[in-house]
Amino acid sequence: MASSVFGIGVSGLNAANLGLSTTGHNIANVNTDGYSRQGLRQSAPYPQLAGSGFNGLGVKVDSIVRIYDQFLTRAVEVAQTQSSYQNTRLAHLSEINNIVADPTAGVSPALQDFFSSVQNVATNPANPPSRQAMLSSAQTLLNRFHVFSQRLSEQRSSLNGEIENTVSSINAYAAQVGDLNNKIVVAQSSGQPPNDLLDQRDLLVKDLNKLIKTTSLPLSDGSINLFVGNGQGLVVGSQTYTLGAVPNPADPESLSISYEQNGNSILLPDNLVSGGQLGALLDYRSQSLNLAQNSLERTALGLVTTFNQQHKAGQDLNGNLGQNFWSYPTTNLGAGIDAPALGVVRPNTNNTVPATANLTGYIQDISKLTTSNYELSYDGTNYALANLSDGSKYTLLPAEAAALTTPAGFTTAGGLSLSLSTTPAAGDKFTIMPLKGFIDQLGVRITDPREIAAAGPVSAVEPKAPAPLNTGTLKITQPDAVAQTTLTTDASLNPNIFTPVTLTFTPDASVVPSGMAFSVAGAVPAVAGTVPYKAGDTVSYNGWTMKLDGLPASGDSVTVQKNVSTASADNRNALVMGKLQTNRVLDGKTATYQESYGRMVATIGTQTNEATIMAKAQDKLLSSAENSRDSVSAVSLDEEAANLLRYQQAYQASSKVIQIAQKAFDEIINLGR
Known about the structure:
five-stranded antiparallel beta sheet; alpha+beta; 20% strand; 42% helix
């Protein structure tokens, strides 16, 4: 009996001692990140059968286990990857928002200042300081475009470095998880859980989810498998696979994510790499940085191309037609027409070598130009044009495909004219970045203030002596060249604009109330008969428009011809150039230059505001998830203090059992003396 009581007491001592050790371990790790408190799992041993029944044999400690909830831990990992995603996205959006939305040093104030200087030239067309101020303002605007473009390019370069560093960290964490998997499998083969190793692995998985969203699958041997993307195994048991940051075949200047397995490199589409810092960096690049850069480039391109066309429709102080005010890369289409060249066209690095076809083109319609990049692909039968911003894809019709391989080319819905030198090999792809690098090659071409074409190209003159003079009250508003279109393939001026056109007035009783009509000589195409006249009418021929008023007399005439005067008061073309600021020529003719740029600024601002709200919300969700986990797994010093007292008392009580058993044994021994 005494021996069984001794055994019971010793088992109690051992259990209490383990309890004290475990409690001390918990207290020591109260501030250890990721630590799960531990507790004893104990049971009563199988009792011993005696004549009076089953006698208990004390207690045994089955295991020291983590107080752990798998689902709460997984909830923390999910919240962590989303919180990290939103905070990384917010940090980068805040940077770009500060660049594009600067209220004093931004593009919009510089645009306003430039058009103010154009208006000043219209007010004082012969004033040299006004003309010089316009050139200076143009250079300031150009510098502003260059500075902003450079800052956005620096953002892209920095982004590539961040992607590389993040991928390296992901690979390092994955290797550590694989190493711990191996140690855990070996340790768990003893039949007991290696609690501290399990905590370390959980912490690594949480840290890994800061960088990229992972899906974990626990296995029966204690290891876990981790998957990323579309089910690519990052950690499979103790085997780890790596990600790479490699140049994108479509755009080598941008890094994409590759999955390395058995010596093979598989490129992962950006939309499959989600969550965490890496997902945020890729989404920021595609949704925000590309938008900001392309919008800035499009604003500059829309401004300078339309301004150039209008400037060439005027006449300078030397009596010459205006030349290009801005300089930029162009494609010569003949007949004096130079269309803006495509920014960058890149054959995919996986294309057939040597290349069988070359893709060229130009920007054909400014109003249809989007902020997207495109990819033209050929599968051996069909051509497809994919919009890389929204993922939409358009398969060219047979007639369009046939036009694509002709010099005339195929004009896309986005206002691009594309032409292939010949049919490419099946599987070949071409990346089209219509706007890339435009600002880098942009300059102010006009350097002489006298060459600013502020005057109109044609003028209306009445007969002068010795010819018979007009005797009526005809009032003439000097003609303007017909407003240009958004097509870059259109000439700035009608080729017949300098063909003199003479309007001669004759009585016509059928015309009420003026009783006058006019014949037209020199118009192309020719005008037969006479045209009824009404005061206030606007007439248009050979690419110009002119308003007539008053009541002409029979035989009165007016001739519209090339402006041969260098009169300094002529500001007609300067007025039209000033009005370009309010012309809606971008975004499908729904926005001015500033409105189009402002829409991008508003989009970036909305994204920033959204990211601010989402980051705060995800931080709260993460905090809530961590609190839920901690309510189960975290160390409570108050609870552990109570456990210390409990185990101390259990230890003392077990000692007392042994002491009493010892006294009972001594009494039995003494009976025989």
